[in-house]
Amino acid sequence: MDTTNDSVVSEFVLIGLSNSWEMHLFLFWFFSVFYMGIILGNLFIVFMVITDSHLHTPMYFLLANLSLLDIGLSSTTVPKMISNLFTNCNIITFPKCMIQIFFIHVMGGGEMVLLIAMAYDRYTAICKPLHYLTIMSPKMCVSFVVAAWIVGIIHAVSQFVFVINLPFCGPNEVDSFYCDFPRVMKLACVDTYKLEFVIVANSGFISMATFFSLIISYIFVLVTVWKRSSGDLSKAFVTLSAHITVVILVFTPCMFLYAWPFPTTSLDKYFFIIDFAITPLLNPAIYTLRNKDMRVAMRRLGKRIVDPSGISQ
C-alpha cells in the first residue's frame, strides 16, 4: 500500500513545562531521581516475583508485568524530557515524535487491560476463593498478558494510522514535554475536527469505560465482603485500597485529556507527569511497602543475603 506523507515539517519543538532556568534545574533533578526510582523499583518487583517461589501466584505475575509496562511507559517520555532539560534542546524529529506517540498508547492500552485483569484476580480471590486457582490458572494469566499487548497495539494503531498521514506544513511547536495525538494534531494543515472525535471515541471512551468499570467492580467486591462478614470491611479494603489508588492515579489524567474535544489549556501536560513519573514510582511503593506478602519476601531476601548458607535461624 502506497501511503505518502506530504509533511514539510521534519521536526517538532517541545515547549516543555517552564522557561525558567531555576525550574529547569529543579525539573531535571526531579525527573532524574523519579526515573531512577521507577527503573530500580519496578525491576525490584520483577526480580522478587521471579526469584521468590512464594510470589509465584497470579496476582504477583500480573503485578510483575504491570511493572514492566510502567518501565516502558515512563521510558517513552521521561528520558527525552531529562535530555531536553540537560541540553536545553527541545527538538524532536518527526519520526521520533510518531514513535513516541505509538508506544505511549501501546503501553497505556496494555496497562488498562492488566489493571482489569488484576481487578478480576482480586474479585475471584475474595468472592470465589475455593475456585481461585482453577479460574486464575497459569494459562489464564498468560492470556491476560498476551491480551494486554494485543489490545495495546490495536489501540495505538487504530489512531496512529490517521495521524501518521496528516500533512504538517506550518507551526511545529508542541505545547508539552512529549508528543501525543491532541497537541500534534492541532499543528496539521487540515481540519482535524472529525479526527479529534475519533480519538475521543477511542482513547476517551476506553479510559472512562475502564475507569468506571473498575470502580464499580471494586465496590461490588466490598459490598459482597460486607454482607458475608457482618459489616467488617477492613481486610477487603486493605487488600483493594492499593488497586483503587493506582486506578485513580492512572485514569484521572487520561480522562482529563481524552474524554472531551481536545484541550485549550496547558494543564493536561502537568497532569500527565502523574502517569509518566509519579504513578510508575508509586506502584512499587504501594505494592511492596503496603503488601504483607512482599514485605515478608523482602525479609527472606535479606536473610539470604546476610546468611547465604541458611545456617542461622
How would you explain this protein's 3D organization?
The chain is mainly α and 313 residues long. The protein has a single domain, classed as Rhodopsin 7-helix transmembrane proteins (Rhopdopsin 7-helix transmembrane proteins, Up-down Bundle), CATH 1.20.1070.10. The chain is built from 11 helices and 3 strands; from the N terminus they run βαααβαααβααααα. It has a 3-stranded mixed sheet with strand order 2-1-3. Helix 1 runs antiparallel to helix 2. It is globular, with a radius of gyration of 22 Å.
As for the number of domains, it is 1
Q: How large is the share of residues in beta strands?
A: under 5%
The level 1 CATH classification is Mainly Alpha
> Could you tell me the number of beta strands?
3
Output the strand order for the largest sheet: 2-1-3
Give the CATH topology. Rhopdopsin 7-helix transmembrane proteins
Indicate the mean pLDDT: 82
Shape: globular
Low-pLDDT segments, ≥5 res: 1-5
- Cα(first) to Cα(last) distance is 68 Å
Instruction: Provide a count of the helices.
Output: 11
Family: Belongs to the G-protein coupled receptor 1 family.
Domain G-protein coupled receptors family 1 profile: 41-287
Subcellular location: Cell membrane; Membrane
InterPro entries: GPCR_Rhodpsn, GPCR_Rhodpsn_7TM, Olfact_rcpt, Olfactory_Receptors
